[in-house]
Amino acid sequence: MLQKRVIVCLDVKEGRTTKGVKFQNNIDLGDPVEMAEAYYHQGVDELVFYDITASAEKRGIMIDVVRRVAQRIFIPFCVGGGLATAEDIKAVILAGAEKVSLNSQAVKNPDLIRQGAKMYGSQSIVLGMDALADPTMPSGYRVVINGGRTPTELDALAWARQAHKLGAGEIVLNSIDADGTKAGYELPLTKLISEALPIPVVASGGAGTPEHLRAVLQEGSADAALVASMVHYGTYTLKQIKDYLAGRGVSVRR
């Protein structure tokens, strides 16, 4: 049985870790470099680092923070936010990230996925997708970009399939409706994308309890679950989460 991964997400704004609800009302949580190192020592499987305002502010990612995090942790590390060119991807990989997450910029220029996969392999190219429930779309979900600010005409399932064909090796699938609510992941969305594609899908948005992770990993067919609020606020430790999952038949690294 393949082991399921527990991934911590650090949303970074102006050089500080932040967290909001449905991408609104963000509060400061601390230094992302110190937090990344702490989670590494606690046994997190991977870290995801998002510069959440880079795309909206039309600027490059804070490469110095990426470099400092990469010097402190020795687990897979994915970075996203404002990566618009092949040179941007190269800079992040050279700064120490194993993976890059392409979200808004990939929607605007899908060939960026193909370029990145050609340069560094599909395993290094992650499609970050923010989806909003919308009954007018074929799959029932619409892709939104620019940190949840801008709806697109893309159907979530169709875009996931297109990104896979272009070379994306993994999808981090974030539900805008569930983001930061701590009420559970969007199971129908996660199951839909996970079962339609042959690449790993990481569930994101809505984790509040270890049971939410169990549900999305088993019933939602996700390969990994991304957490933020529930560990950032000290509600649960990574050990508590993994112990709970292991006790309910989910294979996790411990």
Note down, in words, how this protein is organized.
This protein has one domain (5-247): TIM Barrel (Alpha-Beta Barrel). It is built from ten helices and twelve strands. The chain has 254 residues and is of the alpha/beta class. The relative contact order is 0.15. β4, α2 and β5 (77-80) form a beta-alpha-beta unit. The chain is globular and about 40 Å long. The mean pLDDT is 91. It is 35% helix and 28% strand.
Output the keywords:
eight-stranded parallel barrel; alpha/beta; 254 residues; 28% strand; TIM Barrel
Shape: globular
Please give the domain count.
1
The level of helicity is 25-40%
CATH superfamily: Aldolase class I
Structural class: alpha/beta
| Proportion of residues in extended strands | 25-35%
Query: C-alpha Rg, in Å?
Result: 16 Å
Let me know the average pLDDT.
91
Write a compact overview of the structure shown.
By secondary structure, the protein is an alpha/beta fold. Helix content is 35%, strand content 28%.
Structural topology:
Elements lengths: L4 E9 L2 E6 L2 E7 L1 H11 L3 E6 L11 H10 L4 E4 L5 H9 L4 E4 L1 H5 L2 H10 L4 E9 L7 E5 L4 E6 H11 L3 E6 L11 H10 L4 E4 L5 H9 L5 E4 L1 H4 L5 H10 L7
Parallel strand pairs: 1-4, 1-12, 4-5, 5-6, 6-7, 7-10, 10-11, 11-12
Antiparallel strand pairs: 1-2, 2-3, 7-8, 8-9
